[in-house]
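Fold it.
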Amino acid sequence: MPTPSDRHKHARTRRRGPIEPMLAKPVGDLPPGRPGTWCYEPKLDGFRAIARVDRDRGVHLQSRNGARFNEIFPEAAWAAYDMVAAGTTLDGEIVRWSGGRLDFSALHRRNIAGRRRAAAMARTEPVHFAVFDVLTLGGRDVTGLPLCERRAMLEELFETIPAAGVLALGMHTTDEAEARTWYETMHVAGVEGLVIKAARSTYDCGARTWLKLKQRRTADAIVGGYIGHLRRPSGLLLGRYDPTGRLRVVGRTTPLTAQAAAELAPLLTPAVGEHPWPATLPPGWASSSYGQRDPITYTRVQPDLVVEILVDMATDAGRHRHHCRYLRPRTDLDPAHVIEQREPAA
């Protein structure tokens, strides 16, 4: 009898060129339109992935940037091999649910754990592949069909896929009121917001014509350093105290406007003596771009200024994964009271 390893060998070893997925651009509110004009989906906090099952049943699971995911998330590749017809390509999000919330940190752990540990982690920290679109079906290219027709095909495909498996049909609605309810309530489960798509739109690889409405909130943070020059800082490095009293790096701001820089410059005091942070920060800290390898160079300041920032819901081990928007100084607040709030462990 073949072992699971033998059974899925073809799914793991197949290699093909990458596909450019469609992307979304940010908006500040739901777009106007008559009922049925738009389709709405929860913006899941995970790893974007495309799964392609070739005509000869070879499987290629790729990231948004074309990196190979077969060995990192083998259970997703195996599920595609077992459940999806040859000549079919699916677009979706690899997610990890833990304690009723999306757990991006778990995905990151698996991504850096290496291939040798992947099979074991697939059992201890399993993922789901939430599918929201189909590009080819049974060898037929359907990218030129309207989204509403592709969605109907996808729903028919999932009628034969077990509901409790690794492959999951992504949530989808054309009801704006239902979409608003999702937006207002699902952030407690780690959902970032909504992805909004024209119901009659085709799938254009690489195009950024979908829309994304992110859930955002204001927060306080302590300025621990700046990028640029003291008279004209271009960005801030931000921190919060953890429960042990250590000032941890939690993010950085988007580029500052000239008005914000002029407002902040007289409030920043260059650090003298010891500082809780190193002179350069490791790659990947402070909302760095994914895959960045260069250390972050900045100038340290006395951590005595609190600022109010606008952030989205994406965090990783207490750090903001995306850049924060500076709003205003909070000179009325004591930095000692700015303490990080982490989600409870599952």
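The first helix runs from residue 4 to 7.
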